[in-house]
Design a protein that fits this description.
By secondary structure, this protein is mainly α. The chain has 19 helices and four strands. It has a four-stranded mixed beta sheet with strand order 1-2-3-4. Helix 4 packs parallel to helix 8 and helix 8 runs parallel beside helix 11.
Amino acid sequence: MSRILFIELRRTPALWSALALLAAGTGLLYNAPERWTSGYMILALDQRWYLSVFLGLAMATGAAQGRRDHRSRVTEMFAGVARPRLQQAAPLLLVYGSTVAAAYAGATGLAALRLAGTAEYLRAGAFAGVVAVGAVAMVAAAWFGLAAGRLLPYLVTAPLLAIASFASPLVARGITGGREWLSTLLFPSYGLGGGSEFDTMPGRFSLAQLLYLTGLAAGAALLFAAARWRARLVALLPPLLGAATAVLVLQGGSAFVRNPIDPDARELVCTADAPQVCVARMHSGVLDEVTPPARAALARLARLPYAPSRAVEYLDREDRVVDQSADVVLIPLSIGDDGHALDAGKLEGYMVRNLGVVPFVCPDEAPGTDRAVVEAASAWLLGTEPEQPEARSLRQRLTKLDEREAAARVAAVRRAILACEPGDGLLTSRR
């Protein structure tokens, strides 16, 4: 059997197709590394976003190969061989299935090398489940392409399959009647990529997808090996069984979780010594990079009475309504395309700006603190010159006060920002 596999590997373009898929998959990931350098799970999910492209290429490659017997006019000759059809088809199925699966997993591995020095958090089971679903989907696509090429040995079969795969995420909701859980189950690239860096994929859902895709792959293999219409009808059973089992695992969609977040990835990891600096567990690999600028920012704010004593990563960057404690300074941490903290040298300035308070939306009845007051107080703390003339005038008044009085007024401005109060007279009133 190994000798036959080696022959098929040499005489078919399977190996070269797999290498092309490996290069394409790795190239697409490295073309936008900033999307996945936060951690391993977001890498696996981001690669699944490209899966419709990979599946289209795998199906097109399989369809081109499936035409081989028809193109060589040996279909009738092989039909007369005494060996069972499935036994005849097994070498080609194994060669194409193993190579495309290895190409998909290989692209994940090559991208993961970039995370080795910075990403420390890994939920191995969830990560492996996401990658395994993609690999099995590639096997099912290659085998379906082989079957389609044998049944429809036309030149247009391969490109039509590729186009259908590319368009599948766009029509998924229409096919499933708007059922998001069913769209995500049946189309593995649907709804993935571009979300929060704390996104995950529950093990139950990966298991359901594996069951469905395994049935699809088994049906495609039987269809490729089938010689009669009755055998081709039998090939429908594994996909139906796999889909039905997957629906049972998901309890008819009630077990589906929309936009699942990994709570362990969001859990804070802090320095052992004070002043305490904390980041999400997913970003624990860059805690040492963030600690010096965060402590420098705390040291600047320490000039104020009742100054904050902790620096904590700002986890919900998209949320404009922020519940920030007066004792905390939020760290606007982002991961660069090299896996390290982005603009680590500027973090101190980012944190001290706005007096260590993240800008947020105040309610309509509380319009917030006057911007000139905030800018003047921030400039006094940073030792810079404001741009607004009114803010420059307010800062000059602060500089004429003694350190203790000026610090007390700037601290009052900070409290006003946190409480969404106007604070108009805090820098000008006499005490």
